[in-house]
Design brief:
It is built from three helices and eight strands; from the N terminus they run αααββββββββ. The protein is of the alpha+beta class. Strands 1, 2, 3, 4 and 7 form a five-stranded antiparallel beta sheet that branches. Strands 6-5-8 form a three-stranded mixed beta sheet, with no helix packed on it. β3 and β4 form a beta hairpin. The termini are far apart.
């Protein structure tokens, strides 16, 4: 009987410490994401998934994936139709190229500006950074993830891959999501941000 009580005490203590650890590790971004997903008026989740939803699965915050990038603007880039997960086409242009280093390796990615969004109040300075990396199809969604950026005053900006999130269509196929261009592939594992959604 004494051993049984001790066993449950160990399990309870371990469970509590794990729960506390998870809360401590939450960043403001993670808290915001989870709050939005739990809110039925904002959540992209299907009703059946919302009922059992406890929180998104994130990589632990890693400062390695917070990088200072140089932005090379491309003011003469032409508008094009970015493909999405349905028949909709999203009119975008390459606003510029961001160049940065992670773990001693140099990378560059295109950042996009949407014609419709730039005319929407509150999104005039919004930039869209979709990307692919070596975790796709394993620990993260196979189609890649997104990052939200803002047009900087100068030629540098911070890119925090810990804020990488999944397209809404990962949670519900009713959403129309831009398909990440193959050119935006980072040839390393970006173990940061939101992991794949297990239904």
């Amino acid at each position: 009987m004494r051993n049984l009580v001790l066993f449950f005490l160990v399990i309870f203590t371990f469970g509590c410490s794990e729960s506390k650890k998870r809360i401590v590790d939450e960043t403001p971004f993670q808290k915001k994401m989870n709050a939005e997903f739990k809110d039925a008026s904002k959540s992209p989740l299907k009703a059946k998934d919302l009922k059992t939803f406890e929180g998104l699965d994130f990589f632990k915050f890693d400062s390695t994936f917070v990088v200072k990038a140089v932005l090379k603007r491309t003011p003469d880039s032409e508008w094009f139709n970015m493909k999405t997960t349905d028949d909709r086409l999203s009119k975008e242009r390459i606003y510029g190229v961001v160049m940065f280093e992670i773990k001693g390796q140099s990378f560059q990615l295109n950042v996009y500006q949407g014609e419709e969004l730039m005319q929407t109040e509150g999104f005039e300075d919004y930039l869209f950074l979709p990307f692919l990396d070596q975790t796709n199809g394993d620990s993260t969604y196979g189609g890649g993830r997104y990052l939200d950026l803002k047009i900087p005053d100068g030629d540098t900006l911070e890119i925090d891959f810990n804020k990488a999130y999944n397209p809404a269509c990962v949670y519900n196929e009713k959403f129309s999501c831009p398909i990440v261009p193959r050119v935006n592939y980072v040839d390393i594992e970006i173990k940061a941000g939101v992991k794949d959604f297990v239904k």
